[in-house]
Amino acid sequence: MGLIVQKYGGTSVKDAERIKAVARRVLRTRNAGNQVVVVVSARGGMTDELITLAQEITPRPPEREMDMLLATGEQQTIALLAMALESMGTTAVSLTGVQVGILTDNVHGKARIRGIKPDRIRQELDEGRIVIVAGFQGVDDHDNITTLGRGGSDTTAVAVAVAIEADMCEIYTDVDGVYTADPRIVATARKLGRISHDEMLEMASLGAGVLQSRSVEFAKKYGMPLCVRSSFEDLPGTVVCEESEMEDMEGVTIRGAAINKSEAKVTIIGVPDRPGVAAKLFSTLAEHHINVDMIVQNVSHEQHTDMSFTVGHADLDKALEVCRSILDDIGAESVEGDHSIAKISVVGVGMRSHFGIAAAMFQALADAGVNIQMISTSEIKISAIVPADDGDKALQAVHDAFNLGECPDIVEEMT
Fold first, then answer.
1. How many whole angstroms separate alpha carbon 231 and alpha carbon 252?
2. Other CB atoms within 10 Å distance of the CB of residue 304
3. What pLDDT was estimated at residue 407?
4. What local confidence, expressed as pLDDT, does residue 274 receive?
5. Which of 129, 268, 354, 380 has the most C-beta neighbours closer than 10 Å?
6. What pTM was computed for the model?
7. Is the pLDDT of residue 355 over 90?
């Protein structure tokens, strides 16, 4: 008997018919001789609807109350799915994050999981029930409900799978796997049979919306295999696994290209070029729970320089407010924000042993007439900030430059 965790996103449970379809898929997995734990998101559009409703009450709702409100979306779904399964003649139980014992820190809206108490889940499984868990939510040390941020149900699913020592965590979504690029933008994008945790982590953090990056961090840390599959079709998915399970890792230089349109750029002008300024700036941003991605500092001129960094769109106004509050403290002149940017990236563990990747990427962007504003690199990825209007064109250009749509996958797809 296997122990399987399945996660279903918002589009998979959007209405009654789709919830019933999920129930039938879960039941097939159960009837194949497996114990099943299901993690679900709020129904498609529900979270946005609740956010809009809150903003109609007040433009800046309290973060604690937002978590109380948004957590209700998943609670609707778990109850509805349990009803569907019971109507099909099986026993199921719906559990909130609090009831499961998903313990988090106290950062509302972006909470991180500290631990899970698996006893309740194991007890329900031992009694023959299918367990349905509300994704995206947990509870802090003061019994306040917290939420894990956009895509947080992915993280819930992987964390639960690790806690109960599941054999596999399956992520069901509206796409049938991980592609070399977003197929809605790049028509020649192809599905990958396998991808390493490291590559998937980079792809997820760089804008590939298939998995939340924190869920991949969990999977990598604890060696949990993932499989990304379609909720609507019985097609092979993409297995996300450890590098040691990949074949011929150096045979493919670039695994995929990604675009992120949800970042904004902040530029602080006239920053004094002296020790401690950057530390003051970024420690203050951290105190306000603002995640910073790319950072570029220009060459100093007359002991002053400009410094640019990127943040999520949702954090832009807050980041500008924080920066303005410390301009005098750090001796800078002014701060500007720009939300009209896109981040283009290429990812592949084969980059470790190949040279010329950056040159090929930048040449492709130049040939497409795309200007580069910022550059960031790691051992297995290269990213460039470009104007938002050029984002789709830039993604197509780098995808073509590395022939990502033409090379057959080096690993056979797994069912």
1. 29
2. 16
3. 53
4. 87
5. 268
6. 0.78
7. no
* In the chain, domain spans: 3-174
The per-residue pLDDT for 415 is: 35
Closest to 323 measured CA to CA, from 254, 313, 314, 333 = 333
Work out the average pLDDT over 116-134.
Answer: 96
What's the CA gap between 306 and 298, in Å, rounded?
Answer: 6
What are the tens digits of pLDDT across the range 84-103?
999 999 999 999 999 999 99
The tokens of 168 are what? 């596999």
Written as one letter, the residue type at 169 is C
Sign of the CA dihedral with 200 first, then 205, 206, and 212 last: positive
* Distance of alpha carbon 166 from the chain centroid: 21
Give the integer Cα–Cα distance in Å for 260 and 377: 15
Q: Is residue 7 within 8 Å of 172, Cβ to Cβ?
A: yes
> How many CB atoms within 10 Å of residue 305?
18
Let me know how long the chain is: 415
Count Cβ atoms below 10 Å from residue 325 Cβ, excluding itself: 11
Locate 25 and state its tokens. 């898929």
pLDDT band at 4 (very low <50, low <70, confident <90, very high): very high
- Amino acid identity at 31: N
157-191: string of b/e by CB count within 10 Å (b at 16+)? bbbbbbbbebebbbbbbebbbbbbbbeeebeebbb
Helix, strand, coil percentages, rounded to 5, for the chain: 40, 25, 35
Q: Which residues of 358-379 are buried (b: 16+ CB within 10 A; e: fewer)?
A: eebbbebbeebebeebbebeee
Round to whole Å and give the CA distance between 201 and 214: 8
Q: Which CATH number fits domain 3-174: 3.60.21.10, 3.40.1160.10, 3.40.50.10860, 2.40.50.140?
A: 3.40.1160.10
pLDDT digits (tens, 9 = 90+) for 131-150: 999 999 999 999 999 999 88
Read off the amino acid at residue 328: D
